[in-house]
Design brief:
heterodimer; A: alpha+beta; Alpha-Beta Plaits; 4-stranded antiparallel β-sheet; 17% helix; B: alpha+beta; 22% helix
């Protein structure tokens, strides 16, 4: 973490936090005094070098706070007399949000696994198996596509998918999906998570007795909004639409027409992408725009200059100064 | 066309801020440490330009 502070009539302070930084360079682009410099983003992402993703130059910085206002990922914190500029009326406000609705959540834990920034914390209490005497389960093998969602999410490891060839690159080739009733607690996560509605599950003991309540999972799920970068993995993977994300930018990401991707020799774009939005397919970079936040880190990292982003709109309001408005507009293209 | 190394700008691995960063970044094994000097193994170079982009001394170039 690097920090610049100035004491005077007001005590102004700018801090950069590596842990929240994506190395995207938005702050570097927007700084009016070229006081910020991007560090070696790719070597840091690959773990070859240690260090700050952004370096602050205290000789150049005028402590205006524009960079901190422009960072959509809370990596720069600007304070005046200890108060964060993000909470002050005169500074711009980012309106992108993230959250998980606890009422809807079934505590399957998929979002927490998918989150590339470890921003989701979940704990859950499973129903007590002793109370449940028996139940019935059925998997419709004709409907089942062997996607493995149920197997992955089962809290008691009761589900097993038989694969024809477990090492095959196509994971969707299976022969049967079985639920081990001696392990099953009839929580119903698998039923709710199944994209093909192939699973039926019922606790017969609860069905015929008023005294035994339906098995239920209770828990807590918390989204750390400061860590969240709004990539929307949680929203896309949630089987019950409990996660909601709005992104900081709208726009598009695309490959330049004459781009010759060097694929597996390079893969710089994939390594610097904090959103896990890029993968290498057939020796070529493949971008999944759903998960992209249009930060531009990949575009900077690509030695061939093959990736471009066009930001149409910023989800930002309350920009009061004309000069600042012009600087923010420069982020659009 | 493979890259070229400007040995004057490079100054050797011992004085490189990235301690031979180009060698560590190149996954094709096209750059090697030969007694503190960077040498290029042309046939391994895949023209990805990753070394050019990331060299802290701007010592790797293309004509």
């Amino acid at each position: 973490m690097s920090k610049i502070a100035r004491e005077g009539k007001e005590n102004r302070c700018l801090e950069h936090q590596n842990s929240n930084c994506l190395g995207c360079g938005i702050c570097v682009e927007i700084c009016p005094t070229t006081a910020l410099k991007l560090g070696p983003v790719l070597p840091i992402a690959r773990g070859i070098l240690q260090g700050d993703l952004v370096a602050l130059d205290s000789n150049k910085c005028c402590l205006c706070g524009l960079c901190a206002s422009a960072c959509p990922f809370d990596a720069l914190k600007f304070t005046i007399d200890g108060e964060n500029s993000r909470n002050m009326d005169k500074y711009p406000k980012w309106n992108h949000q993230s959250g998980i609705d606890e009422e809807t959540c079934i505590y399957c834990g998929k979002c927490s696994t998918a989150c590339p920034r470890d921003a989701i914390f979940m704990n859950r209490t499973l129903p007590d198996r002793k109370e449940l005497v028996s139940g019935e389960t059925e998997v419709d093998q004709d409907k089942c596509i062997f996607c493995g969602m149920c197997e992955e999410s089962c809290p008691t490891d009761a589900i097993k998918i038989e694969k024809i060839n477990p090492d095959s690159s196509n994971p969707f080739i299976g022969t049967s999906t079985k639920i081990d009733e001696s392990k099953c607690i009839y929580c119903g996560i698998c039923r709710r998570i199944c994209p093909e509605d192939a699973i039926k599950i019922v606790c017969t003991t609860c069905m015929y007795s008023d005294k035994i309540p339906d098995p239920q999972i209770s828990g807590h799920i918390v989204m750390d909004e400061e860590k969240c970068i709004n990539c929307s993995w949680c929203q896309e993977i949630c089987p019950v639409d409990a996660a909601h994300i709005t992104k900081p930018f709208s726009g598009e990401i695309f490959f330049e027409e004459e781009f010759e991707c060097k694929g597996d020799s390079c893969h710089a774009c994939k390594d610097v992408c904090s959103c896990n939005a890029i993968s290498m397919v057939d020796n070529h970079s493949y971008i999944n725009p759903q998960f992209c936040v249009l930060c531009g880190a990949c575009s900077r990292a690509c030695p061939q200059k093959g990736i471009s982003i066009k930001r149409k709109d910023l989800n930002l309001t309350n920009v009061r100064s004309k000069a600042w408005n012009a600087r923010f507009s420069s982020l659009k293209s | 066309m493979p890259v070229k190394i400007d040995q004057d700008k490079c100054g050797g691995i011992s004085s490189c801020p990235g301690e031979g960063l180009c060698i560590k970044l190149c996954e094709k094994g096209a750059l090697e440490n030969d007694n503190n000097h960077i040498v290029l193994i042309e046939e391994n170079c895949d023209d990805c330009d990753l070394c050019i982009q990331n060299c802290p001394n701007q010592a790797i170039i293309k004509d």
